[in-house]
């Protein structure tokens, strides 16, 4: 399940791949888009992602009720007007890609129709994202998959059969490297509906790398997702929520992105491996385990009583499990108060067995 985007390995054996989603947070200003790329690079994000569409490739300019939004963050908007406000113009794309290259941060996009794929291919996009709302657009998925580039697909709102159809379409059209992102398509998404355990179901069902497209507020869900096996985290990103763009309400700011990079990396490091093995950091403290010590000055030939020995720290004597074996044995030599108990100063069946 491991693969690369621009030589950055993605998979369970590697730190989480953090995608800063620029989306509409440029607010129609190219210079702000470039500044947001700078901020993502400075925060340590693995990639910056944009969305490639126009209002006309998303919908039609229509006033009928079907094309008007009721409720939620964009209540009252016509679809056409919302997408006109939020679109990243096609003629910005080259400048955006070139700026990202100068900053050394990977950039790719979510295309919403075949013209977008054509544009992104001309810019040598290294990967593609499929949005949750387009997961059922199998012709678009087949078009993207035919590029042979890695694909990241969000699964918000989808049934298991719809995800299966999308995966089958991508595989059949040539996709080799695929990530499925668990996603709750609500803006913002309620934390008590984040349902992060769904990632394990996606991984088990489809045998792919999994991650999270996180629309909850803050970064807690994203870090928790890494602890549950997420290899990719996508989070909407803005220079400032005060800018009040289309996606600003559920986007994180630069300091939060930097914290997400740090915390998700730490969560991944903390996973380690499933094995009962003493870690190097523990070695120095092994000496402070309990062990059996003589707590009296005792002569040779003395038969050990329970009052002569104790199970105490540090750990240079025999392990506490041998306490009952020690009591009743005879000393072969004199010992001082504070001497660790060892088999070589004792006689008797247990001592003879250990020495032999």
Q: Can you give a write-up of this model?
A:
The chain is 32% helix and 17% strand. With 356 residues, the chain is an alpha/beta fold. It has two domains: 7-53 and 88-271, Aldolase class I (TIM Barrel), CATH 3.20.20.70; 280-355, Type Iii Antifreeze Protein Isoform Hplc 12. The chain has an eight-stranded parallel β-sheet. Strands 1-2 form a two-stranded antiparallel ribbon. Strands 11-12 form a two-stranded antiparallel sheet. α1 (30-43) runs parallel beside α4, α1 packs parallel to α10 (254-271) and α6 runs parallel beside α7. The two termini are 52 Å apart.
Defining traits:
single chain, 356 residues, alpha/beta, TIM Barrel, Type Iii Antifreeze Protein Isoform Hplc 12, 2 domains, eight-stranded parallel β-sheet, two-stranded antiparallel ribbon, 32% helix, 17% strand
Cα separation of the termini: 52 Å
Main beta sheet, described? Answer: 8 strands, parallel
CATH architectural group of the largest domain: Alpha-Beta Barrel
What is the CATH first-level class name of the largest domain? Alpha Beta
Helix content: 25-40%
Strand content: 15-25%
């Amino acid at each position: 399940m491991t693969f690369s985007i621009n030589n950055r390995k993605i998979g369970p054996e590697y730190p989480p791949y953090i995608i800063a989603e620029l989306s509409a947070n440029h607010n129609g200003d190219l210079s702000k888009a470039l500044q947001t790329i700078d901020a993502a690079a400075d925060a340590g994000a693995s990639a910056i992602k944009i969305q490639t569409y126009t209002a006309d490739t998303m919908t039609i300019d229509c006033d009928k009720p079907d094309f008007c939004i009721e409720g939620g963050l964009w209540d009252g908007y016509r679809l056409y007007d919302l997408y006109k406000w939020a679109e990243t113009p096609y003629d910005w794309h080259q400048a955006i890609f070139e700026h990202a290259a100068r900053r050394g941060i990977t950039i790719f996009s979510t295309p919403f129709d075949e013209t977008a794929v054509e544009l992104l291919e001309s810019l040598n996009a290294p990967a593609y994202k499929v949005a949750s709302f387009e997961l059922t657009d199998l012709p678009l998925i087949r078009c993207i998959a035919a590029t042979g580039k890695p694909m990241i697909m969000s699964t918000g709102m989808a049934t298991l059969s719809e995800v299966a159809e999308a995966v089958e379409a991508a595989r059949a059209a040539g996709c080799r490297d695929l990530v499925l992102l668990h996603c709750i398509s609500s803006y913002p998404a309620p934390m008590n509906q984040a349902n992060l355990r769904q990632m394990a179901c996606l991984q088990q069902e489809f045998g792919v790398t999994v991650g999270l497209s996180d629309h909850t507020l803050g970064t807690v869900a994203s870090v928790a997702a890494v602890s549950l096996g997420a290899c990719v985290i996508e989070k909407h990103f803005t220079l400032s929520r005060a800018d009040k763009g289309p996606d600003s309400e559920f986007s994180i700011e630069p300091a939060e992105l930097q914290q997400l990079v740090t915390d998700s990396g730490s969560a991944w490091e903390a996973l380690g491996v499933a094995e009962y093995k003493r870690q190097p950091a523990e070695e120095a403290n092994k000496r402070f385990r309990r062990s059996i010590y003589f707590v009296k000055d005792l002569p040779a030939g003395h038969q050990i009583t329970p009052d002569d020995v104790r199970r105490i720290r540090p750990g240079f004597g025999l392990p506490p499990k041998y306490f009952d074996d020690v009591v009743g044995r005879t000393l072969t030599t004199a010992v001082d108060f504070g001497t660790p108990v060892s088999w070589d100063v004792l006689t008797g069946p247990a001592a003879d067995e250990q020495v032999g």
